[in-house]
Amino acid sequence: MSDPKPPTAPVEPPVSVRAPVIRRLEAAEETPHERLIKKHIPAWVISGAIHVGLIAILILMFGSRTAETKPPEKIVSTSVEREDEPPEQDLTNTDLGLQSTVIATLPEQEQLAEQTVDSLRTQDNIGQPNVQENDTQGLLAIGLPTLDKSITGAPGTEGSSAFGTGGDNGYANALMLGRAGATKSRLIKEGGGNEASERAVALGLAWLAKQQRQDGSWVFDAGSREEVVAATGMAILPFLAAGETHLKGKKYQKTVDAGLRFLIKQCPTRGPNAGKFASTSNMYSQAIGTIALCEAYGMTRDKSLLLAPAQAAINYIQQAQGPNGSWGYSAGTNGDTSIVGWQIQALKAAQLSKDIAVDDRVIKKAVGFLNSVSSGSRKAVYGYNDKTGAQPGTALTAVGLLCRYYIDGWGPDHPGMAEGVLGLSKSGPRFNTRQISNLYYYYYATQVVHFFGSDQWRDWNEGPKQPDGTRRNGMRDWLIETQYRGDGINQGSWEPEAGTIGASCGRLGTTALCLLTLEVYYRHLPLYKRSQVNPELR
Prior knowledge:
Number of strands: 4
CATH class: Mainly Alpha
CATH topology: Glycosyltransferase
Strand content: under 5%
């Protein structure tokens, strides 16, 4: 048997067989993870690059627009959560370095609960007939200085207007420029106010806000509890004087808005009782509510909310004038100087609004009444009516002089005004007690002397000059010292005096009057420029 062929003879087949074996072994050693990476990583890289590019383009196109939408989102959130925001940090101007943060720690208006007023049982004795000068119980003797459209120191009665932010985008009275901003700061400095007086105002407004009821009204915590319109109007006035209105952006916007809306609901604009505030028993309350509406309109020019009720209330006052040019406790009857003062203030507030119509014949008849109750060649003193005597340095003389200032052209250079102020100055502040007294007189007289100016005003406001050059025992410091500063529900208020105005209006009315007196520096700009007054009358 022949030997087989050597295995080395066929060279090519072994070579071709070994190559596939080698490739299969390499493939078997490759893991699934490595195969996945090799298969897909090029696609991921390309896709990622494309997406990064698209994102960059979107950022460039819409980035600025997104940034612009963030503030509105914050505004919406703020308006929704406003109830929980801390109080604003300025009630007055920071220009003077005033302690404008005083009220930052006080409760929010929404948390203000009714205090002691609802627990007091009272009866209405506001505006009792035939009240004499020495018996001022029931006389609500607030004076509203003129709603002047002139700027400080401008001669004459004509004035300029300043653009306002009211509901009608109209003009706000230039007098309101004194209630905020740099003008207010300047008037505080020049008029004799200071940090302590503004702190007292801030505390007093916070106390007043706490007394507001759920329906927006206030009530007197003394004898005239039923006169809710009078109490509400009286409480609103100090807020307006401090520059607070019902427009958004104000610290006490909700307080003022609720109060004004309460008055508006009480004042029908049509029908047989158009303009007459509901549940009022006399012309005192009618005038107080009307002043608040007219002054709020003068500050905001909000025609949609305030113009119709303010005009209706003024119309009622004009129709209610008595035959001799005065106003009585009831419409259409003759009255006295105190009631006349209220009506003239309301009429002047309306007259200077430029939108609320006032009949000049009504004003002329009122001037005729003032002539009938005044005495002396210059008619510098005033009595209760034409049957009572007139004396210098009395509350009724102060009321009469303020009325002359409003409607009869009596500026600081008028002889009757100069003589009348001289009499008031002789009965100036003499404060040896921490108890409020004679507020009826001091409130009116402070306004008259302030508009007169000169050294008489410094003596009145800051006190007589002492040998060491300082001044003390003036109206300003007396009001600051008599304000209750302790803890508790009465913080920021004033204790009412026994009898007189305190018996009718209680702590609420007393506090409102004291606040308005402390706001006299900026509440209204003067009508006239003061020049040299006859030295004999000083």
